[in-house]
Design goal:
The chain has 205 residues and is mostly beta strands. It has one domain: Porin. It is built from one helix and ten strands; from the N terminus they run αββββββββββ. The longest helix is centred in the first third of the chain and has 19 residues. The two termini are 34 Å apart. About 9% of the residues have low confidence.
């Protein structure tokens, strides 16, 4: 009996050590994206910063930063969406034209896990570039994002990750300045917003 208890204790210790030593998490995911309107480019076939909602997919890679117990990780994300919108044509008498659009985000940032339990919540921040494309139109814009969600590990190597991510893309920045006995600067920023709701499989090694 004592020998069995020693073996069981050794197995538990090895499992805990393996779990705490996990270094990299790869998460392929899928979900749905929604957003608000914004466009640039050709007025008749614009680059559309809102696809009106559509299926999104991509992948996340997390690398630990600092001691594992701190729960701080560096994160890289790629997310892609395919959808369509209707845009006005050059003639007022023609019906709106259906245009296929794609939106891709390539971002890096950090994630802070709030616990070390098998089921744990996290928050994060992202920074990167977004590519918006319609027929014959492609544009790249600066994007920042926030994320929150949960990780649920069934074993040291596999689990489920659920995310809610918000993106703010800077469509355009403008400003004016007037000086007369002092200077006044008026800065205007035209942003657009999107949100992803996704679920993915965690593969840890």
């Amino acid at each position: 009996m004592a020998r069995m208890m020693i073996v069981a204790a050794m197995l538990l210790a090895a499992t805990a050590a393996t779990s705490s030593a996990q270094s990299i998490e790869v998460v392929p995911f899928g979900g749905y994206r929604v957003g608000t309107a914004g466009a640039a480019g050709n007025p008749f076939k614009p680059i559309v910063f809102d696809a009106g909602g559509g299926v999104s997919f991509g992948a996340i890679v997390d690398f630990p930063y600092g001691p594992p117990r701190d729960g701080l990780k560096f994160e890289a994300l790629f997310s892609h969406e395919r959808s369509w919108i209707e845009v006005d044509t050059a003639s007022l008498f023609d019906r709106p034209e259906r245009v296929d659009v794609t939106v891709s985000h390539l971002m890096v940032g950090g994630v802070q896990e709030l616990d070390t339990a098998p089921g744990r919540a996290f928050i994060g921040g992202l920074f990167g570039m977004s590519r918006y494309a319609a027929i014959d139109e492609v544009d790249v814009r600066l994007t920042i994002g926030l994320s929150a969600g949960g990780k649920f590990f069934a074993s040291p190597h596999f689990g489920l990750r659920i995310d809610a991510r918000g993106y703010m893309t800077i469509v355009s920045i403008g400003g004016t300045a007037a000086c007369s006995g002092g200077c006044v600067v008026n800065l205007s920023i035209n942003p657009t917003f999107q949100a992803d709701f996704t679920a993915g499989l965690i593969i840890a090694f």
